[in-house]
Amino acid sequence: MLFLYVRDAFLRAGLPDGAELELGGCARAPSTCPYPCPSPAVIRAKAVSAKEVDSGNDIYGNPIKRIQYEVKQIKMFKGPDQDIEFIYTAPSTAVCGQPLDTGGKKEYLIAGKSEGDGKMHITLCDLVATWDSLSPTQKKSLNQRYQMGCECKISRCLSIPCFVSSSDECLWTDWAMEKIVGGRQAKHYACIKRSDGSCAWYRGMAPPKQEFLDIEDP
């Protein structure tokens, strides 16, 4: 299951407003999108080392500690021209830090803020998911598919029946039908904007057919 704590995302789906996870003092509303539209940088990478560093002082003059992860970037899906070499986060989940495994074997999909000079910053509110936890459709969709739905709206269905209120909405029913966040729609579908401005769920790893984009019911 993926957790993305950003409301506007390529596949914006999650629990109802008010349903949150409490992790170390950081309240987060979960969703299942593996690729957030607003994130400046989205990469596939593995962490190879970690150390605590100072990153300035707070308003009281106390040093601000950060964990600096040295990472090996495997692929950049979105971001600056320069590879990401270091990722910074708070030292613990209690202050919204996002821990990474430094064994060098786990590959991650990471979305966060690019700070230039090969640096990136992440918090618990950013997407960090192990690569192996993504479905084949989610992995394939990272290259372009999710971008086709940035202007669409996901309407959360809490119980059946439920309906969309406009043509640019996709009705998300994983929670209503399966009582889980990362259900069938999240793993195998993407909400895509079609030629007439309407939005619809598309399933499959192949690029959408032109007939689908030209208003073919999925």
UniProtKB/TrEMBL annotation:
Q: Does the keyword Cell division apply?
A: no
Protein location: Secreted
Show the PROSITE patterns listed in the entry: NTR
Question: Pfam families, from UniProt?
Answer: TIMP
* GO-annotated cellular components: extracellular matrix; extracellular space
Sorted alphabetically, the keyword list is: Disulfide bond, Metalloenzyme inhibitor, Metalloprotease inhibitor, Protease inhibitor, Secreted
S-S bridge residues: C37-C150, C152-C199, C157-C162, C170-C191
The NTR domain covers 26-150
Could you mention a single GO BP entry for this protein? negative regulation of membrane protein ectodomain proteolysis
Show the GO MF annotations: metalloendopeptidase inhibitor activity; protease binding
Please indicate which superkingdom the organism of origin belongs to. Eukaryota
What protein family does this chain belong to?
A: Belongs to the protease inhibitor I35 (TIMP) family.
Q: What is this protein called?
A: Metalloproteinase inhibitor 2
Q: Which gene encodes it?
A: TIMP2
